[in-house]
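# step 3/5: fold
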Amino acid sequence: MTKKDIIIRDIIALRGPNIWTYRPVFEAWIDIGEFEDYPSNKLPGFTERLTTLLPSLVEHRCNYGERGGFLRRLDEGTWIGHTLEHVALELMTLAGLPGGFGRTRETTERGVYKLAIRNWQDDITRIALEQGIALILAAVEDKPFDVAEVVNTLRRKVDRKYLGPSTAAIVNAADDREIPAIRLLDDGNLVQLGYSAAMRRIWTAETDQTSAIAETISRDKDLTKELISSVGVPVPEGREVDSAEDAWDAAEDIGVPVCVKPTDGNHGRGVFIDLTTREEVARAYAIAVDEGSGVLVERSIPGIEHRLLVVGGKLVAANRSDLITVTGDGKSTVQELIDSQVNTDPRRGTTELHPLSFIRIDTAARIELERQGLTGDGVPAAGREVLIQRNANHAFDCTDEVHPETAEQAALAARVVGLDIAGVDLVCQDISQPLAGQGGAIVEVNAGPSLLMHIKPGIGQPRPVGQAIVNNLFAADQSGRVPLVGVTGTHGRNAVAKLVARLLYLSAQYVGLACSDGIFLGRRHVQKTDAANWEGGRRLLLNRAVEAAVIENGAGVILGQGLPYDRCAVGIITNIVPEDENLERWDVQPTGGEYYTTHRSTYRTQVDVVLPGGHAVLNAEDELVADFAELCDGEVIFFACDPANPVLTAHLAAGKRGVTVVDNRIVLRAGGDEIRLCRLIDAPYIGKTKAPTKIANMLAGVAAGWALDLSQDVLTTGIKTFGLALPDPATVLSQRAKQAQPARKPAAVRK
């Protein structure tokens, strides 16, 4: 057998909905060369070697829809491009990414395939594809391949580049409510939820409702105590100190045991509890002072540390820490006992996939060991229990145990500090009892708390904390969306997009328009280069001022970039004229079903993304376009210059809506009902020539305005002014007209 190879010819990053799926993907063009003549069942020993390297491929269902489905395809014979799809996906899954999407389809060039694979992050996906090729070739050639090393490399990339667990929990909860999410940093946790004026932003477990003042207060532990104590929340007695001697003076005043900690530390760094001697206090001070801008000495509270998560003034989750101990065997050192008795727990690890971290002998642990007359190298007697850490790993969910009074005090503490999301740390012996009766107290109120302990507790029930945060950001009737209109087609899409933007503008909304003439915000033309692309549309969705957006998308955008939005309220397809399109770059064919990229598979994307409560505006006089009606999740409004068009008439006969021309007037129709707007001659854009293409464009724009429930006065004014300079709404529409009821739906579609 001659040497065979797999070459990645090109990778197209599709950032939004595309011909493959609603999600971002990499479309890799793969040249499999001689492998075209060698499907998997003609490569001796290949399947066995591949599944030995990646035994978890058994979980891939493939098109059989059952466990082991892909292995069945390998046995029957499938091509290397399809195999690469599954291998790359599995490598990413093993690295900790969620399950992904994949498709492989042939092109018109023999041996060249389009491989679409879910793209969570560019660097990660690229590595998975490259290493997937290397793994497959190793299996073909019966050469060794270090799968573990590749997975570890990918996992390190995931840890650095992918969303952290707290952020991912919030984003996933938003997705469950169909609220769109836009990641604002390629390797960070700043995420926008929603679009334009309806957006909110999060950064890990902080939101745009998290006050900078509140966050600053929370970092000042002494000030936090003072504020929450003033409203009756129990806090430990203590004060800030400025030297080791002052720390011991404070300890004597308070009474030992005491706690020493930084005034503005986090993650428990520099915190020492149950200190009883001058030496212990002095050592703790020396470490704590380097962890913050000051040091606090407080009364030690007896009990176990708990973390209560408060969102929007309500307790949503609670977790408690644990004592970490080991039992001596008379032979092993303390460090060896920790490694064998504690760190072997599979829940412990160094990544965010692990709810518990490895236990190390840090400074606090060394102090604990010294109290017991031991060091990390010491060998405890057989049967002796050795305390390593007093409060380690908040691993035990106790949400249902929290006493209502304690929950109220935690919520009050968060509210007094001013945090919308707060991690409230308290110490008590029994969380099911009120704090006061057991000498418990709230010791800290933290901004940006980790959610991992609640999402993935070591023991107990995971809590829907991401959902709680999303519900606090968005009321039940809020979707995070603004009216968004997507316009595509071969011809006329620029004119239609501009008309729809004008109609929305006349309805007194601040409109963003991204089209081939640039970007328009209200009456301002802020970018004069072509913006009918992913980047132009995305700029509108990141703009808080935009109350409604209109985005033009050509076939090249769908094929080469992906749509800039996940879903839209109105999707318009003006027409499809294959002979006028130059789509050779993407190997688009007139026909080909599911195997080739076609004009149908390209343009249907605009209809696929219409929201269930939205509308598709389709050209009834274009057979290719009219055929998309069955694909729409929402309502379809047809437009046609000819009122006798059979597609339109059948649509109207079913009581549905359409826009056409009758007696040289633009007419809204549903069933036998109609609303006449104005004469064609009154439309400057159409002019005296009454060009059918311009009439069709006008009908499409009016249909979109009708779908958006714009008033009849607005629709009529838009028709009469389109083609002229953009007017001030105040000069052409009365206030009453702008605020009028929407253009009345004919009786057949009224509810």
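# step 4/5: annotate
The first strand starts at residue 7 and ends at 14.
# step 5/5: archive (pending)
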